[in-house]
Amino acid sequence: MSFPLLTATAALPAIGAVATAAVPAARRTAAKWLALVFSLATLVLAGIALARFEPGGERYQLTESHAWIKDFGVRYELGVDGIGVVLMALTALLIPFVILAGWHDADPLETKSSRWRPTQGFFALILMVEAMVILSFEATDVFLFYILFEAMLIPMYFLIGGFGDRAHTGSDENAAAQRSYAAVKFLLYNLVGGLIMLAAVIGLYVVAGTFSLSEIAEARANGSLSMATSTERWLFLGFFFAFAVKAPLWPLHTWLPNAMGEATSPVAVLITAVVDKVGTFAMLRFCLQLFPEASKWATPVIVVLALISIVYGALLAVGQRDIKRLIAYASISHFGFIILGIFAMTSQGQSGATLYMVNHGISTAALMLVAGFLITRRGSRLIADYGGVQKVAPVLAGTFLIGGLATLSLPGLAPFVSEFLVLVGTFSAYPAAGVIATTGIVLAALYVLVLYQRTMTGPVKAEVQGMADLKVRELVVVLPLIALLLFLGVYPKPLTEIVNPAVQHTMSDVQKKDPQPEVEAAK
Amino acid sequence: MNPVYYLYLAALLFTIGAAGVLIRRNAIVLFMCVELMLNACNLALVTFSRMHGNLDGQIIAFFTMVVAAAEVVVGLAIIVSVFRSRHSASVDDASLMKL
Amino acid sequence: MENLIALLVAAPLLGAAVLLCGGRRLDRAGHWLGTLLAAVSFVIGVVLFLDMLGKGAEDRTLHQKLFSWIPVEGFQADVAFQLDQLSMTFVLLITGVGTLIHIYSIGYMEHDERRRRFFGYLNLFLAAMLILVVADNYLLLYVGWEGVGLASYLLIGFWQHKPSAATAAKKAFLVNRVGDMGLSIAIMLMFTTFGTFAFGPVLAATGETSEGKLTAIGLMLLLAACGKSAQVPLQSWLGDAMEGPTPVSALIHAATMVTAGVYLIVRSGAIFNAAPDAQLAVVVVGAVTLLFGAIVGCAKDDIKKALAGSTMSQIGYMILAAGLGPIGYVFAIMHLVTHGFFKAGLFLGAGSVMHGMNDEVDMRKFGGLRKYMPVTFITFGLGYLAIIGFPGLSGFFSKDKIIEAAFAKGGTEGWILGSVALLGAAITAFYMTRVMLLTFFGEKRWQPDAEGHQPHPHESPKSMTIPMIVLAFGSVFAGGFFSIGDRFLNWLEPVTGHSHGHAPIGAATVTAATMVVLVIGVAIAWAMYGRKPVPVVAPRGSLLTRAARRDLLQDDFNHVVLVRGGEHLTRSLVYVDHTLVDGVVNGTAASMGGLSGRLRKLQNGYARSYAVSMFGGTAVLIAATLLMRAV
């Protein structure tokens, strides 16, 4: 038996979480370093998995399979396709930056007693989330996936509710109330989604008699499993609802701005760049693969909802006064693009959507983390409290601009590639939807440039005077992300090579072919 | 004699017991009413056993008696300890579980 | 030779990377490095040009494929270059004028502490613009297209501490993005129609699809061109873009970037040739902008904004020519090149004037400067003569050809277009004479600046005057050089094609008419600004003048409809999101809470009431069972 690489990739951060939590209260710095080392080791393992993955090979690779709950046929089954392995690597890549960016976010306040151990808990929870997210990208057993999908809410709940952004307006009590409101809202939304999914998971078991993705696919292929149309649709809706809450899709999005606004910026990155990706990933893996017919049936509605998300999220971003909420609404707009790409059901759309998940993760992390550095310096999240920062802290302003330009999908940076693929893929299947989605690029420019103009340009505000530029630790966080954005913008081929075969598998699951160009079709 | 009369008697006893449980407040009386209901059930079980000509009902009646005995032990113990702490055997006073 | 194309782009790109990431260590030598790399790019361009001249007309096109950019099933985007005569013309213009303006900026930006970054941005611009013109497919062109937009954004907003500059930069980027939307939709249409967006296959296959599709693609390309080239209705950003440093205005907003729209249309000629409706739209846009820009140029007192109006108008000429089809393509590009010389020269002259006048831009506060700035006066004057079309100078040849071509369009259309072009020539003569008279002639109307310093006009340093002199040479001789023996026509014809059309009136008549309107325009300007003293404070003026000062109310329209409307929309959406979308969910939560509050009352703690419900439940169950039996 070969080394269980996938299990190890998920287990390492889990072990790290336990180890970090066990560090004595006084050794705070040691806990931070320990967490960082574990996250880096996980990154190495994820890198090995990525290297060992053969794009042209089997659909699921590095597979592991063990019996778990025999009576219900639940198995501990892991395996990654091109989409899963890329997202797993993205998660492993982002966590070290999240940890490094949040280095001082959980330092105890002087007023608290010395026995309080928030620091260890903060980093342990982050590693716990990483372990669960990575495992959920690897799970090929529906039940296993469901458990992880729900379980990751618990550490996230504590991260949002327990470690709020210290830059808040109003009194401490007020801020604490808002924070717990955001955390509860996050939990309730996702729990409702999860419960509906649970019903669908049980329903699936009743119909198919197994939770294993590969067995269900096999049974579908040889005709031994046939779902009634209405059953398939109901089950699809159950799964999709949960994923649409997580992703989030309009009108189920309102938890995201609260959660991202109240959490510290590294946790906000964790929410939008890592945890939410599980939702869109699961749409690709479970919705399309398990319920191809129902997916096609629901496509028109989902495309419309995705378009609403794109335009609505962007418009609301323009209207925000809080930097972090602005980025949250921008993310809603971007998730609209991802979902649009998935349900356009063309090769370009789905490859684009997968790349979009990766690129959005990196670009939002860059923008949000720099915004976090900015907010920590000034102690306010309100856009109106800033002005002229570029004069005082040019490097901070420069990196913020690059993050912003990536968010508005400037060609040459990674998000452009994915956004254009999504647009082309959508356009070739639904021209009108493609055109409407294209207005998103104008609105994105609007909210990014308005944000940049109001915070960074103009005369230097008195409170901003004397603001320090980025420090070494912060540069270490931001520069690699920017380098990656540039590299993947110019040369995305390594990614597309891994993703393409997986997308072709998904396309054959839903039995869709790309629309032929008119001229070639005529020939 | 027609066994159905025994069933009528059992129903009557059960109703008296049930009414007692619902109406009376004294824990001891409540308790006796519960016993009355149990015995009404026993009577019905034995009657059915006789009517159907097998022993199942009689066996269950024995079980009921054992359970009732155990219940009396535990129940009386609780009532005594409640009375000691509150100097009352009224069930309405024991509503601590209410929010 | 092919490999040199990548090097052409790489040199300024390297410069941008080094200068922007290099930090303060490069502050002292950064501008030299930037200029050097621009010059390297120009030299490579010249080498490629000479190589091209050595080949036959038909096999001059070079191709270079660097790598496969976005390989996805059914979708091939390559980073690949194509250098033909059309691209070559642009390469020489961009790198040539670009290098001159780099040299000029060394002097102009001498006292700016962020000069290194300025040169970094300029190099970034050169690289993006070169990608735009040497790309071999529309998607890579799009990269350059947005790249120049970014460089333009950064450079307009270079003095970011001025809120007006930051706003102007944002506006330019946003309006351009609207145009970019057109370009991306056009690319998507090409992809669904042809399965590719590389120039070669797309332009060769135009015959195989419907005219409707081609018209749609053409209109979307036109939208893109309108954004980049500041054509009506997306012209509003160009005037504000003058907030940027003057070398930027000269390079980006006069000579090169704003002409990218013309390049796009000429490059896509095959599409427009097969879509007459789209062509008509192009012509209309060109003609309207031609007049619009000219009218705005007449009313502005800010020397740079007057020149910006003129740029719009001149690009209107080019777009008009490009819309005429094969009759006009060559002349559109020829006017583009000569315009690149004289307009860059005029802007540099304006910069030189501002440099000597404490950065004053109001022409009413200039006057009589010819004695103090002789070199600027002469070079600016030559540029002036070139732009109004003085016989023998560059503008004369290129503009005359466009007017001829407009008449040659034939029919009523030809007459209308020809007359518009002639009228435009008259207005051009008027507003340029006005600029000339206000700045260099008349008595001194100098005013102390905000800090009370009286201006002491002086000639600019050599690094600034030499580029001006070189450009003045171009303004004088380029047109004649191109026209003798139809050199330019023969050079470009293999790429763009050419047809003569049927002019209803002879070439000599057109030239004569042009001369007449030229004299009329100059005479009116002389009567208004030369004969009598000019007031320092602008008179109220007629309704048209006041409207023209405000860019013919375009901005007011934008403000009321788009800005205000948009603000209301976003604000109400924020409200809706909070109260309605979130409210529905919170309302559900609240009603759940209320319901559970009521249900809680059932738990009263009395064992008896629980027992009642148990008995009641049992009774109901039994009754139900019996009933079912009975039925």
Give your account of this protein's structure.
Chain B: This is NADH-quinone oxidoreductase subunit K. The complex is a heterotrimer of chains A (523), B (99) and C (631). Chain A contains 21 helices and two strands. Chain A has 523 residues and is mainly alpha-helical. Chain A has a domain at 294-515. With 99 residues, chain B is an all-alpha fold. Chain B has helices at 4-23, 27-52, 56-86. The longest helix of chain B is centred in the last third of the chain and has 31 residues, at 56-86. The termini of chain B are far apart. The model of chain B has no long low-confidence stretch (mean pLDDT 88). Chain C is mainly α and 631 residues long. A two-stranded antiparallel ribbon of chain C has the order 1-2. The chains are: A mainly alpha (523), B mainly alpha (99), C mainly alpha (631). At the A-C interface, helix 12, helix 14, helix 17, helix 18 and helix 20 of A face strand 1, helix 5, helix 6 and helix 23 of C.
What's the structural blueprint in terms of helices and strands?
The complex is a heterotrimer of chains A (523), B (99) and C (631).
Chain A: H1 5-22, H2 28-52, E1 61-69, E2 74-80, H3 82-101, H4 118-138, H5 142-151, H6 153-162, H7 172-208, H8 213-221, H9 229-246, H10 255-262, H11 265-290, H12 292-318, H13 323-344, H14 347-378, H15 389-392, H16 394-407, H17 414-429, H18 431-456, H19 472-490, H20 493-509, H21 518-522
Antiparallel strand pairs in A: 1-2
Chain B: H1 4-23, H2 27-52, H3 56-86
Chain C: H1 3-21, H2 30-53, E1 62-72, E2 75-83, H3 85-108, H4 115-134, H5 138-156, H6 163-194, H7 199-204, H8 211-228, H9 236-240, H10 246-255, H11 260-267, H12 269-273, H13 276-299, H14 303-323, H15 329-356, H16 374-388, H17 394-408, H18 411-440, H19 462-483, H20 487-496, H21 507-530, H22 543-549, H23 554-600, H24 607-630
Helix pairs in contact in C: 1-2, 1-4, 2-3, 2-4, 3-4, 3-10, 3-15, 3-19, 4-5, 5-6, 5-10, 6-8, 8-11, 8-13, 10-15, 11-14, 13-14, 13-18, 13-22, 14-15, 14-17, 14-18, 15-16, 15-17, 15-19, 15-20, 16-18, 16-19, 17-18, 17-19, 18-21
Briefly say what this structure is.
By secondary structure, chain B is an all-alpha fold. Chain B has helices at about 5-25, 25-50, 55-85.
